[in-house]
Design goal:
Blueprint: H1 16-23, H2 25-36, H3 52-86, H4 90-102, H5 109-120, H6 122-149
Length: about 150
């Protein structure tokens, strides 16, 4: 099965510029309050900032959690795509595998799902449902327009 590898996360890059921006955050917030709400300057307080070391650790944790969630999502999509693929009969799997080998785009789970659904008929069913929902929505819009156009102007 062909797939594009995702690079491993490198960790949060804390630069001197980010640190300077973070240290000036309270002052920037105060300036924004003074500019946007001049009558309420004394009533709004800018957010208090954490010490730099705590903020750096918070951002690193947040990035780590975010990266793991992203990797979990991709893995879940691959598992679902492979489940659909292996549910197909052998001849259909061979056709899917051949198209996937020739696939010029990125080797990602969404594209593999597209190729699989194109062969197993799910894509056509999804398209049919989408066309039905779109037709129903347009009918509701036309009915609303007709009802509004019949109202007296006034």
């Amino acid at each position: 099965m062909r797939f594009d590898r995702e690079p491993r996360p490198q960790g949060y890059c804390w630069t001197p510029r980010k640190e300077a921006m973070y240290l000036r955050r309270e002052a920037r917030d105060a300036e924004k309050i003074a500019r946007d709400y001049p009558l309420f300057v004394g009533q709004f307080e800018p957010r208090a900032t954490l010490p730099v070391a705590e903020e750096r650790a918070r951002r690193e944790r947040q990035l780590s959690v975010s990266d793991q969630r992203w990797r979990d999502l991709k893995a879940s999509q691959w598992r679902g795509a492979r489940r659909e693929y292996f549910a197909c009969p052998p001849a259909m799997r061979e056709a899917i595998a051949e198209e996937w080998r020739r696939w010029p785009g990125p080797a990602r789970p969404v594209y593999f799902t597209y190729v699989t659904e194109k062969h197993n008929g799910v894509l056509e069913e999804k398209s049919r449902l989408h066309r039905e929902r779109e037709a129903a929505m347009l009918a509701r819009i036309r009915a609303r327009e007709t009802a509004q156009s019949s109202l007296p102007i006034g």
